[in-house]
Design brief:
280 residues; alpha/beta
Length: 280
């Protein structure tokens, strides 16, 4: 909607009245705030009447200001950062709301269904010949963190996509004895589902960890782990996602037994030998 309303204003700006142009200027400056500001508040900022805003929205092809706000909320549900007016709430409410959102996400991530799939996913990672962890955009830091933890436990772990490489190149050579763990939180790039299909064509077992918006892709995965990231604030929170991969790494370590423990010991010895970490 942000691009849509901006394009409509740009295309029809010359045809607007001076008052409507003032209103349009304010809309352009608050595209990410439209879900929380009323027409009256925007009119006050622009120094025009509410009727002017109503005429502007009609000229842009919207039936009402409520339609604009609804479209802005839909953008937030898709992962687009939409500002909230925190000045209308007491500081305690802001913090309490944030904690409530995090608790709900964490409870969902470790709910009954995931308590079945997570141990099975950990067993698959522990026994795989090679493990490839895939993640794009906001999912990449979570994928990188999981790769870092798994590398301390076992050999044959990689993260993708890496600079200059395609996903096809990363998948080359993988097969049924391997595992691909895909992190796919919302606002996924084009081609995401094709990457999942590529894993299926290579007959590589797939673990998909993603928010509910990827539920329609779960049939591509052997293990589907749903992990919500949404909250009432402008930005998604990945606290539950990082907690989920931490649990997964713990479980892989436990499943690896003495072999995994020995790998951890060797990594620790190398840290000390190379003096790459501040262990003070």
């Amino acid at each position: 909607m942000k691009a849509s309303i901006a394009e409509r204003i740009t295309a029809g700006y010359a045809e607007l009245t001076p008052q409507e142009q003032r209103a349009a200027d304010v809309v352009m400056a608050h595209l990410d705030d439209l879900a929380v500001y009323s027409s009256a508040e925007l009119a006050e900022v622009a120094g025009v009447s509410r009727a002017t805003f109503s005429r502007l929205y009609r000229h842009l092809g919207f039936e009402s200001s409520q339609e604009v706000k609804s479209l802005a909320r839909e953008r937030r549900a898709q992962g687009v950062p939409v500002a909230t007016v925190e000045g209308e709430r007491a500081p305690g409410d802001i913090f309490d709301g944030h904690l409530r959102d995090e608790h709900l996400n964490m409870a969902a991530a470790f709910g009954p269904e995931n308590r079945t799939h997570l141990p099975a996913a950990a067993a698959a990672v522990a026994s795989a010949r090679r493990v490839l962890v895939l993640g794009w955009r906001n999912s990449y830091p979570v994928a990188l963190h999981l790769r870092t933890q798994l590398q301390q436990i076992r050999d044959g772990v990689a993260v993708a996509p890496t600079p200059g490489q395609t996903v096809a190149e990363e998948l080359t050579g993988l097969g049924p004895q391997d595992v691909v763990v895909v992190l796919g939180f919302r606002r996924r790039p084009r081609g995401f589902e094709e990457a999942l299909k590529g894993c299926a064509e290579a007959q590589v077992p797939l673990i998909l960890i993603a928010d509910p918006s990827a539920r329609h892709l779960a049939h591509h995965a052997r293990h589907w782990i749903e992990c919500p990231v949404g909250r009432s604030g402008a930005f998604d929170s990945y606290a539950a996602a990082f907690s989920t991969v931490a649990w997964l790494a713990d479980a892989v370590l436990a499943a690896g037994g003495a072999t995994a423990a020995g790998h951890v010991d060797r990594a620790t010895e190398l840290f000390e030998t190379l003096r790459e970490l501040d262990l003070g």
